[in-house]
Design brief:
- This protein has 25 helices and 22 strands.
- It is α+β, with helices and mostly antiparallel strands and about 625 residues long.
- The strands form four sheets. It has a seven-stranded mixed β-sheet with strand order 10-22-21-20-11-18-19, sandwiched between helices. The chain has a six-stranded antiparallel β-sheet with strand order 2-1-3-9-4-7, with no helix packed on it.
- β14 and β15 form a beta hairpin.
- α2 runs antiparallel to α3 and α2 crosses α4.
- It starts with a helix and ends in a 6-residue tail after the last helix.
Length: about 625
């Protein structure tokens, strides 16, 4: 719809200009008709909009000022200059509409990347082409090589590489197989896939991104709300000054009535706040579109403004600074020649366990070439570990107390205490002869976290980790990640209280988290930033979502926000400066009405183009 409207506005403006050109070439008595047509064609859209605003909302707008100025020019006999005013105003309006819409097209283009149809696999194995809006959860579809994946789903058959750059910005395709999640709009590689549908088409990740960006574009920042608040009083003030200008110079400085009215009309044009009104939103919309394209979603323009003012960024540990998935960092067998013996037994038992650390041990054993067998007499001992029989040996796997504290303290000259001091979690494996091995596990720091935290500190932002872990683990992670400070053993209410303390001390504080326990702190902070893989409660509470779970995007977004604020300031100072300069030139009688229009509309287009620079910033 906007696309059609833009073309109509441009065609109307150009036709108006053509009629003015013809009018200039004709004698004066025959040119009036062409000028009149130029008025009607070029001025219809802005005139209609201005009158509707006046009638429906009782608001005086810039459009109405331009129509009044053009009408005044006709009354005093300046047909050609009034027509030029209409032409330039109509043309600049069309260009402004195009420029403003460009910042939105970056995101709405996502809609075109989602297919409208998919191949549904029927119960008998046959395929039928259906509209994606009819697909339901748990149905199975077929995705051919090179096709856009039509829905959010889970691969149940096939191994392929997926181009997810649409969602993550990462150009390298991701290898995926059965059990892996895939998202609508991403591109399948060279293999045929069968995908189980996880959600209806209107609830997929791409549609959620589009809705969130559109919502952010509608929620205006404080700068824009202030400008809109003063627009109507400003227009009334301009009309009052123009009314005075139409009379006072004739009596005070001796201008002729024609000159007096003419200068009042020029004042009406050059004092209009078009450029000032356009100083903020093009920049904000461009920055929101830029952020979304790089996997950072804002729930409102005001949050984009706030993130650039942060003094402190508080971060949760698990799933934010760290991966949230412990891995085996050390395995110490009783004797080196028993390494595979212990791995085989521990892997077989943990493969049948549901303990959070079991998966890490199983994975480690598989990576070292172990084949598992089904354990016998498996028994889970709550809070302690698990016992089972493997290879005619009774095994106990779990905490130190479960396998024998005295033996554990002496194992390999007290290596357990050394590993514990390094902030690692320990799992002991014991057979009938005693402790056979120790597994040391640790939640590793994300590869990008250290660099992101260093960049945040370089940008003048203090970084603090707020963790529920014990003091020793929290201290080690904070040191390894390079944080300014940390606080350990925090319950959700402790996190809230600490955020309040930071706010009182430093002012604007951001919070990054991904769990349900982070939601209260996210809501308390000046701005809550949620990891895209986080819980529903955290995503619902946060003001910003990192789709890629990449902390480095926070740094880039803060830089983008600061750039946006600088551009808005540039636009405001420039637009006000141009208005004052044009008013002074008019009082000195050194500009004509067409030149006033060019200066006024030219400044408006320049501030919009300056804001659009943010589309390419990074």
């Amino acid at each position: 719809m906007n696309f059609v409207r833009q073309h109509i506005l441009i065609i109307a403006a150009l036709l108006s200009g053509l009629l003015i050109g013809i009018g200039w070439l004709l004698p004066e008595d025959r040119s009036v008709g062409f000028f009149l047509l130029a008025y009607l064609i070029g001025g219809y859209a802005p005139g209609k909009e201005g009158l509707l605003q006046l009638i429906k909302k009782r608001q005086l707008t810039v459009n109405l000022l331009m129509i009044l100025a053009a009408t005044g020019a006709v009354i005093i006999g300046y047909w050609n200059e009034g027509a030029v005013l209409i032409f330039i105003f109509a043309l600049s309006g069309a260009l402004e509409s195009y420029a403003m819409d460009k910042s939105r097209r970056e995101i709405t283009a996502l809609m075109k990347l989602q297919p409208e149809e998919a191949y549904l696999i029927e119960a008998d194995g046959s395929e039928r082409l259906v509209a994606i809006r009819t697909l339901l959860p748990d149905q199975v579809i077929s995705v051919r090589p090179g096709e856009h994946i039509p829905v959010d789903g889970e691969i149940i058959q096939g191994q392929t590489s997926i181009d997810e750059s649409l969602l993550t910005g990462e150009p390298v395709p991701v290898e995926k197989g059965p059990g892996a999640s895939v998202y609508a709009g991403t591109v399948n590689g060279a293999s045929l896939l069968r995908v189980r549908v996880l959600s209806k088409s209107e609830n997929n990740k791409v549609q959620n991104i589009i809705r969130m960006v559109q919502s952010a574009q509608e929620l205006k920042p404080a700068n824009q709300l202030f400008i809109e608040k003063i627009e109507a009083p400003y227009v009334k003030t301009v009309l009052l000054l123009v009314s005075v200008m139409m009379v006072l110079p004739h009596y005070v400085v001796g201008w002729s009535w024609t000159e007096t009215v003419y200068r009042a009309l020029v004042l009406l044009v050059v004092a209009s706040p078009c450029a000032l009104v356009a100083s903020t939103m093009p920049a904000v919309l461009s920055a929101i579109s830029n952020s979304a394209r790089h996997g950072v979603l804002f729930k409102g323009g005001m949050h984009l403004e706030t993130i650039g003012q942060l003094s402190v960024l508080a971060l949760d540990k698990t799933g934010t600074i760290t991966e949230g998935k412990p891995i085996v960092t050390d395995f110490i067998p009783r004797r080196e020649n028993e390494r595979m013996y212990v791995l085989h037994a521990a892997g077989s038992i943990e493969d049948a366990s549901t303990h959070p650390l079991a998966g890490a041990i199983t994975t480690y054993a598989l990576e070292h070439g172990c084949l598992f067998e089904s354990p016998e007499a498996l028994e889970n001992v709550a809070g302690q570990g698990v016992s089972a029989v493997v290879g005619n040996q009774t095994w106990r796997i779990g905490k130190l107390q479960f396998v024998g504290e005295a033996a554990g303290a002496l194992f390999h000259h007290g290596i357990a205490q050394k590993l514990k001091n390094e902030g690692k979690s320990l799992v002991f494996a014991a057979d009938e002869s005693g402790i056979a091995g120790i597994f040391a596990l640790k939640d590793t720091i994300r590869g990008e976290s250290v660099m992101a935290i260093a960049a945040l500190k370089a940008a003048g932002i203090r970084t603090v980790m707020i963790s529920g872990d014990n003091e020793g683990t929290a201290k080690l992670v904070a040191e390894e990640a390079g944080l300014n400070d940390y606080v350990a053993e925090c319950l959700p209410e402790d996190k809230v209280n600490y955020i309040r303390k930071l706010t009182d001390q430093y002012g604007s504080v951001g919070m990054v988290g991904d769990g349900i326990n982070d939601a209260p702190a996210l809501a308390t902070a000046s701005i809550g930033i949620t990891m895209g893989a986080g819980s529903g409660a955290a995503i619902e509470t946060g003001d910003v979502i990192l789709v890629k779970n990449d902390l480095s995007q926070i740094v880039k977004t803060i830089q983008l926000s600061r750039k946006m604020r600088r551009i808005i300031k540039q636009n405001v100072f420039f637009s006000v400066g141009v208005i004052l300069a044009l008013i002074a030139a008019n009082l000195l009688q050194i500009i004509t009405l067409p030149l006033g229009v060019i200066g006024h509309e030219g400044s408006t287009i320049l501030v919009i183009l300056n804001g659009l620079r943010l589309l390419k910033y990074r």
